[in-house]
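Example 3.2
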Amino acid sequence: MTNGTTISVVTDSFACLSGFPGSDTHRVYIAPNRIAMNGTSFREGIDLTLDEGLRQIAGQRLAPALTAPSPEDFLAIYTRLAQQSSGIISLHASREMSRSWANARIAAAQFTQIPIAVIDSRSLSAAQTMLARMALRLASSGLPFEEVAVQVRSAVERTYSIYFVDNADYLLQNRIIEPAHAVISTMIGVKPLLACENGHLVAIEKVKSRAQAVERIAEFAIEFTDIADALIVHGRHGQGDASRMLHDRLLQEFPGRSFPVVSYSPSLAALIGLDATGLVVIEHEMDDENGLQED
């Protein structure tokens, strides 16, 4: 058993740490996805920065190929962290869309030095980062490892994501929407709204304009009576028109609340394209016995 007294947090590079508000994300350890473009495979965050990844994807007609971190990648990270940690919370992109969770489980099964909780976020990108930050806050409060894992797993069930996608090409190539739907959408000039449901990205409805998309996402947010954490995400570097519109609209509905805006990762861009704007929400637990707020 290690002499470490710190709970460490691991995730894969679907998580969008770059530019994320707050300084604690340096304590989250990243296993990089591999992104293949034009015959070259890049390790996200190592061979490919956020800005460079988004720039290169912007020139790709075909969706880049994604490969999750291998069991060996996770095992190397776990072994290194065991020297300074009493336990590891390992948070991953949805098992329905990535092998990250499955490969981490393989690695954790071979590891006996410290306990590892391998958790499927049932989502992607910003949701993983928000859950990782929650795990860090819970660990810093002095909760035992097992309770931190229980509370993070509970928060997964209260995490919701919705995205407006302006260009459906990558959605079609990645089979997130059906070809017939893509053709009809193009013919009548509508764009899909996606949600994470049961670990899948699914089209929930179509809208005709960015303004209509912003209004629908705002209506989605208003449905929550007690938001613990919320984040606006977008694909292009720099805040786009849709994300600015959404930010202003949400401030009207939730005066005094902060809605940070960040770019999502190249991994998510490889799935849904660059022209997307989304909102991720974590709802407060109804009965929080520990009184720990997730904001």
